[in-house]
Amino acid sequence: MAYPTDEGNGPMANDEAAPISPKRCSAFMNDIFPMDDAIIKALPESKTFVSAERFGKSSWAVTGKIMTLGRDGLDKAYFIKVAYGDNGRIALNGEWESSKAIHVLKFDFIPKPVAFGEYKAQPLAYFYLSDFVDMDFKSAPDPAEFTAKLAAMHRGSQSPTGDFGFHVTTCDGNIPLHVRWQKSWSDFYRDLFLDVCKLDRETNEMWLELEHAIEIVASKVIPRLLGVLQENGRYLKPCIIHGDLWDGNVGIRRNTEGSIIFDAGSYYAHNEMELGQWRCEFAKVFRGKKYIDRYLENYPAAEPKEEFDDRNRLYSIKGSMNYSAGHRGSHLRITAYNDMCYLCEKYAPTDGIGKYYRDLDPSITGVCIATHAFPANGV
């Protein structure tokens, strides 16, 4: 079956094209899930394909539910995500590799990954297949249970190289991240930060004051705040992190009431990096102090502990700038700049850096935004 490629923007246009809009694909398919023989072949040998249907929503992929029948006569459901173009391949392969790394550590904390592959009948169409989990998204996860699992995942992980990074490119949403291996966490975060800022600059217009702040944060604040984590004999463990852990990527299993995460874009990082997303305006539940406090009971803050909140602010800037890069005109860009001003005032006072304003700080005002994301694996 052919797919739309109008104005050269469809999945067959070229490898660098943005992934096809799920909305446009849905309209073209009359809301029928775009099944392919490659997906059937990827199912476990003991399972026979029965049906496929559209299920859940995603801002950048087509999602569905596949029903199978086992040799034992029992039904089993799988969750399927399909994306297009080179961006789609990178995002879904990153989720596949991330989910495998997490599932090995905490098999009950993420849906079991089953397969990643490319469609046979459609060029540049890719899929990620996992177990289907029936989830509750309306209830907040128990802070004690959730943070204990998360901390155990961080503690139990082991970087295969001993460095920070990941063996494939992963994504925050559908935005590729700079996750090449590095021994220095300060250097790794600097490059990740600068890359996200570059993507933001490509989406939004040039803002000279922001550019100046980015330069000072990269050259002075990051080395000061993060460099000390590996100085004077301090060891900083590279931990596997989910990479995009906010309220919309967590659910509760209906059968066990245990928390479960999904849509991972992982890399080996300072474990506190995971908590940076919780400070961002798109986080509502996790911004509550009880989640941070409970987590720190399981995995204490790194030394110097008194700088934990400043590191959390620094890590949140990546989340805000990444959101801004994907949403032209988002005011999270202003939030990120305000956070940069705070850190520059404190750690690298420099002429030309704007003033920090408390009334623009969501960690003080409590301001949240309505997000574009929807549950995609279970309802």
UniProtKB/TrEMBL annotation:
Source organism, top-level taxon: Eukaryota
Catalytic activity, as annotated: N(6)-D-ribulosyl-L-lysyl-[protein] + ATP = N(6)-(3-O-phospho-D-ribulosyl)-L-lysyl-[protein] + ADP + H(+)
InterPro entries for the chain: Fructo-/Ketosamine-3-kinase, Kinase-like_dom_sf
Signal peptide: none
EC number: 2.7.1.172
Keywords: Kinase, Transferase
One Pfam family this sequence matches: Fructosamin_kin
One Gene Ontology MF term: kinase activity
Gene3D superfamilies given in the database record: 3.90.1200.10
Full protein name: protein-ribulosamine 3-kinase
Native organism taxonomy: Eukaryota, Fungi, Dikarya, Ascomycota, Pezizomycotina
